[in-house]
Amino acid sequence: KPKMTFKKLVKEMVAADIELMRKEILIDGGGEVNEKHFRPTEVDLLINNPKKVEENLKWKPKMTFKKLVKEMVAADIELMRK
């Protein structure tokens, strides 16, 4: 069974962002996405398997997930400062 789902990825990204920004954010309730933003051929559920990528493409990431989020947050902060 895959270890990572899209929902789990989003939760991990938000948690990493909060940790990096040192802010407490309360996420309560739900939300809706306007259907005009849906792609007509989008699949309902995407599940990744990093091991499959490593095996089939002989490729491994050069940075950790946390480092990726850290760089993304730093870039967003820099963009907001401009």
UniProtKB/TrEMBL annotation:
Q: Cite the InterPro entries for this sequence.
A: GDP_Man_deHydtase, NAD(P)-bd_dom
Domain annotation NAD(P)-binding: ranges: 30-72
Q: Where are the transmembrane segments?
A: none
Q: Please, which domain of life does this record's source organism belong to?
A: Eukaryota
User: Pathway of this protein?
Assistant: Nucleotide-sugar biosynthesis; GDP-L-fucose biosynthesis via de novo pathway; GDP-L-fucose from GDP-alpha-D-mannose: step 1/2
Name one process (GO BP) from the record: 'de novo' GDP-L-fucose biosynthetic process
A GO molecular-function annotation: GDP-mannose 4,6-dehydratase activity
Keyword line: Lyase
Q: Name one Pfam family in it.
A: GDP_Man_Dehyd
Q: Which Gene3D superfamilies match?
A: NAD(P)-binding Rossmann-like Domain, UDP-galactose 4-epimerase, domain 1
Task: Give the protein's recorded name.
Answer: GDP-D-mannose dehydratase
Q: What is the lineage of its organism?
A: Eukaryota, Metazoa, Spiralia, Gnathifera, Rotifera
